[in-house]
Each structure stands twice: as C-alpha cells, then as structure tokens.
User: Fold these one by one.
Assistant:
Number 1:
Amino acid sequence: MNRIKEVLEEKGIKQVWLADKLGKSFNTVNGYVQNRKQPSLEMLYEIAKILGVDAKELLNDK
C-alpha cells in the first residue's frame, strides 16, 4: 500500500500533472493512487523526487 493519494492531496497536485511528469498514462498513475497496482521501486523514487518528498513518505508502514 502507498500514500501517493494523500501526498498529492496535501500538495494540491492532480494525477494528470503527475502522469505528465512521469511520462505515464493517467490510468497507470490512477492505479498507483488507488492502490490497485504498486509502482516499481524505481518509479516510487521518481514519484518522490517529482513531489519533493522522501520516498519513505509515500509508503504505509501497515
């Protein structure tokens, strides 16, 4: 499980913007945000870099 949705909401960033920055489709990013699929470790670090957070902040510890 990840916290991408919460971080996006905290920062006021839309999924469409993140998808554009990652060069991924909206459906792919939406899958990450809704926890239907998990990003690879490399992708998680890329998302963290784009959002300006530590990768650990994107992970649930549950």
Number 2:
Amino acid sequence: MPIYEYRCDECQVEFEKLVFGSDVVSCPKCGGEVHRMMSCCTFKSAAGDFKTSGTGKSGCSGCSATSCATCH
C-alpha cells in the first residue's frame, strides 16, 4: 500500500498517510479537506545500483561512482 503526503486546506498541516484502496483522507489535526502533494522518491533498481536522473552518478554525494557498492 502506498504512503502519500497530504496538505490540509484549512490549517496547512502536512502529513503522511498509508492509504488502503479508496480510503477517504482528512486532516488529523482539524478534520479539514486535504490535497495530495507531489512527492519525491528514491528507489533502488533491480540491479542494486542507485540511480539519479541523468547524472550517471550514484546517490552518494561524496563520490562519482556509478554504484554505491564501491563506497558502502
């Protein structure tokens, strides 16, 4: 089941919610209407390499390897 990020239209609180099927989500603080936010995600490919869009580098900030296996 996916975890989505939401923002309340009433009180502007941001929160995450595990959503099952067609669950209706409301703000846990005030009960107001919410909208799902665009989320960034990081994932590991089937080959086990971390990929970043278009750079050809690993997900590491301190190296230029194409796989984190060389430094982790």
Number 3:
Amino acid sequence: MSSGGKIPGVTLHENEVPIDEAVVRSLLEAQCPEWAGLSLSPAGAGTDNTMYRLGDDLLVRLPRTADKARSVRKEQEWLPRLAPLLACPVPEPVHVGTPTTTFPLSWSVYRWLDGNEAQPDTVQDWAAFGTDLAAFVRELHNIDLMGTTRTGDLSWYRGGCLQPCDQWISTCFEDCRTTVDAELDVETLERLWTAALALPEPSGPHVWLHGDLKPTNLLVQEGKLHAVIDFGGLSVGFPDAEHSTVWDLPPQARQVYWNALDLDDLTWARARAWAIAVGVSGISYYWHTYPAFVAECRARLQAILADATAR
C-alpha cells in the first residue's frame, strides 16, 4: 500500500506504536537472525500497518496499534488455511513475530508478492479485470467456513447489517458537511444511505469475506489481477459489503463484476450504502492526518454519485 499523502510526523491513531527501521532490525535480530543481515527498505504504510521489504523475497508487516495486531494474528491463523483453496495468490506468512520490549505487538514476515496496485496505468482491460475480481470473490465466498462462525475477530462490522452503524455514520455525514460539502453532494449520499437502511436485511448464508478489496489491495501483473493482499479485514458474514469497493474501479469493471456475480438490486443498494459509509467515515477520521486516503474516499463517493445519476 502506498504511504503517499500521509502528513509526516502525524500518527493516524491514538496509542500508535512507533515503528522505524531500527525497531524492525531489532525484531529480526532477536527472532529471525538468519534474515537480520538482509537489506531493509520501506514498502508502504496503510491505515493499519507499516511494511518493510526484507531482501528480495520477504515482507515485514507491523501493526500500528494493539487493536490492529488482532488482524495480524488473524492472518497468521487463517491465510495458511485459505490459500490452498484460492487460485489467486495471497500473502504467505513465513514467520509469526511475537511482542518484545521494543515492539510490544504481534507482527509478521511474509513472502514478497510481486505486482503493482490496480490503477489506470497498470490495467489495460478493465472489463477483464472485473471478471477476474468477481471470480476471486465467488471462490472465496464458496469456501467452507471450517466450523467457524461470526464471532470474535471474525465478526468485523462490514459483514453485518447496516442499521447498527447508523448513529456513527450520521455523525460522519455531519463532519463531511463541514469539509467536502462544496465538492460532494453530501445530501444525496445521505439520502442513498437512509434509503438502504429501510431495505430488508440480508437473508442469505454467511460467507468468508476479504473485507477491503480496494485497488491498493489488488496486485496486477501484465495488466491482469495477479494477487490479493491485506486480509486484515477477514471476517465471516453477509457478502453485501464485500461488493462496496467496486466503486473504486472504472464503470466497465463495475458493470462486468455485477453481471458476473448476478447481484440483485437489493444487494447492490446495500453494497452502495457500505461504500458510502466507508467513504464518509474515512473522510471524517483521516481528514487532518492522511490526505491521500481522504482523496481515495472522495473519489469513491464521486463515483457513487455519478453512477446513481446515470441509473
């Protein structure tokens, strides 16, 4: 994930644990001495984790906060079980890092996955990309739950229903009115959100969810989907929110994705509401700290508005 746009010296969350190259070196020397002499370079930072490339073939991933460390442990437990059942490559944990006095959280080392983020300059055929993404989602959602249920770390909010989020999201709409109201039609976005709250709740079975299939988590090689990364949002739940990130993709990818999965209008409306929720909450939470992520959220909301007008 790109670290561009984060304001230097500003943390993103309360109780964020400081991370730099010296911290990573100390962890490697203590727990992975066979890799301690390899080259180390920043490999991006997202809202939840900071990454360093280790040598040519490895990636160190460290959570920003204790809460985010729960997602690291979840990846360590479930990715080895899910990977053999997926045709698309996903991160492979090769070391389960344990807390130390220098870094008091769980952390991971993964195999390095080559590829570029899905962007206009890396994808040549967006319709084909939409088809490939739909195939990944179908495959993931069809994997047996292996006896697990929507509990604990596998009960992330995006796999649930919209209504419990209404009070929180309503506050985010108010924040957006004071920041981006001149650039976004916040009133229409809130109307679409409110309309979705009145829809019947999902009634289908729970499935495995990636939780955050935005372009920065979709790696491309030779113009095609090559790998899916960042399973920190892995959960069990209703599939509606899984489809929300297609508004981050061009319309041709979105339409093909919809058709390939044969999504009905109710699912689409709930997915759009989830996309709105993530967009307005991202603007609200990161407005002063992470301009690049705010820009991603604004672009998503603009695409939703354009799509709603077109329909």
